[in-house]
Amino acid sequence: MAYDRMHGQEKGIAERLLMWRRTLGTEKKYPWLGTGICDDLVTAAKLLGADTSEFADGAPAALAPAPVLEFDL
Fold it and tell me: Which residues make Cβ contacts (< 8 Å) with residue 14, sequence separation at least 6?
């Protein structure tokens, strides 16, 4: 019996693109922020018919505050 993968399939691609946009847009540790990939994900999802209104201003609606990091040397 083969494993049914959701990734790489047409069904649900628009929703997965938005999921990746949420993830990539809120995790500041990723090096590709600012490269435009987040905007491209939203545009691709919109072209596929997804509701992209949560990204209308360019940022996720519920952006979590950045954690305060302390370093002890």
Answer: 44, 45, 48, 49, 50
